[in-house]
Design brief:
The chain contains 25 helices and 8 strands. The protein has helices at residues 12-21, 24-27, 33-37, 50-75, 87-95, 102-135, 137-141, 149-162, 172-196, 206-215, 217-227, 234-239, 241-244, 246-274, 282-285, 292-323, 346-363, 366-394, 400-422, 430-461, 464-471, 497-506, 559-563, 599-609, 615-618; strands at 333-334, 343-344, 479-489, 508-521, 532-535, 544-552, 581-590, 626-634. It has a 6-stranded mixed beta sheet with strand order 5-6-4-3-7-8. A two-stranded antiparallel ribbon has the order 1-2.
Length: 635
Amino acid sequence: MHTAPRTGPLRSAVVIAALGVVFGDIGTSPIYTIQTVFNPHDPHPVPVADSNVYGVVSLIFWSVMIIVTLTYVTLVMRADNHGEGGIMALITLLRRWTGRGRRATAVLAAAGLFGAALFFGDSMITPAISVLSAVEGLKVVDPGLRDFVVPITAVIIVVLFSVQRRGTATIGRFFGPVMILWFTAIGACGVRGIAGHPEILKALSPTYALAFVSGHFHIAFFALAAIVLAVTGAEALYADMGHFGRRAITFGWLGLVLPACTLSYFGQGALVLGDDSTVAAPFFLLAPEWARVPMVLLATAATVIASQAVITGAFSVTSQAARLGYLPRLRIEHTSASTIGQIYVPWINGALLLGVLILVFAFRSSAALAYAFGMAVTGTITITTLLFFYYARTRWGWPLWAVLPGAGALLVVDLMFFGANLTKLVHGAWLPLTIAVAAFTVMTTWQRGREIVTRAREHAEGPLREFVDGLTRREPPLIRMPGTAVFMNRGSHTAPLAMRANVEHNRVLTEHVIILSIETDTVPRVPDAERMTHDDLGYARDGIVHVVARFGYMERPNVPRALALLDPEDTEGPIDLVNASYFLSKLELFAGDTPTMAPWRKRLFIATSHIAADAAGHFGLPLDRTVIVGSRIQL
């Protein structure tokens, strides 16, 4: 059964923090959704007519209710991995399944990995479309500012990515109040629009959505590609669940975000009913003229916060993927002493910045980018729904009579949105698919290459117990020097290459030897009490012990701190960690002729290995006491 929900009183500070981080993306969707639906330059435009306005507004509302409120808030957020959420958490939950259906589990885990790959495309498109849509409000204030939209957007994005290394620990506490002001403002503007044409409230009835789809399917189907923009950011609710808890996110969504967004959508619909020329920028025109400049500034701040959230999400997905073996170790910096989820990944930050700037200058408008945006979102939502219901059936034992109708109905909705976005394939929807395919190829290639290298390495290392047993029978005997040596090892069954090379070439060994293996569990964090286990290999009297340090996939390994947790009785007395030497084995990879992988995948694997972080820094080893021994491995 899944982890029990968190108990205790719900603190307002947690809800405010969740409002500042979780809802930025979905909360800024009203800026461009209705404008995109009725965009006359769309390849499949929706005519501006009263019946279509009612249908579109109703369809937006019920899409949000079905996908966000029902699928994510009510169902999917119940599947947590020790409190953590997100599609990577679902993958780790599925990977624990060892019973019947392992092949199906593996296929679904691969689908989940592709969903995670889609998120990287989302991480590039969200900052570009969000900031562009906000800055485009300048055109409403003064049409002469049109030419400044793209340069101003680029400057904001460069500044946004430049401050990532500072983290959100300092400015994060301001995000919540800004977003509360944002939701209050868009809700108030929505009320103003509804007051002008209150008949728009009839669109709350699902009959208008159904009538629009059934009576104008040739229009409604293509409109779904833009209507899906209203649910962009739904995956963030699930992904950030570990930071704030399900209760805080649910309270924030139902208590403020959903009502505010609903009022904004209905207010914009009412505005268009009164004057169809406002369809060019209904969000900003909904505000009174005196408030449009402040609204542009507030929208810009809100979209920067939305971009911040998705960038941080990309950092988290990268970190989790690396810990699960889908990516090499990358340099990860923790930017907050109090919030473990606030991390900075320099390589990913640079890649995202380059990608976002290319999108801004290539598409130059939020309407053009909207064609690309929906594909990443619908793909991720569909895969998440599929994984959730499979997990609910196999692990929670949900009855088939409940799973099949429930999953079937929700997947029909998801697939209709996905199919509608496929019609935009040549107009930009190819972009997130291309990014996802590239990321998926890199991750699966790294996983496969890592397995091949591990086998080759294990063959070169030889059995650990046999190697340790042979140390006592060497002629001439090894020279034992005072001190402590820590040999980092990939597993518990083979000997460290660095130790084998040291023994064979230098014929010397310290009095205390610790062979340390690192294990990454499929849980976010491991308590210190369960961190360390030891095995004396039968030779504790000779000062050689094997130690396993366990870390969760959300943790950054710190070897010296972990070793300090060892009981002196397990190591024949206290070890001198202050002066201990650390030994690492560094592999030089080269592509051989063996048919282990396609030649292009071998080259990709070797190229990917070059972005790996320095192992000493990754494990927190003191650089002045770390020795690196090189070895060559054929791929």
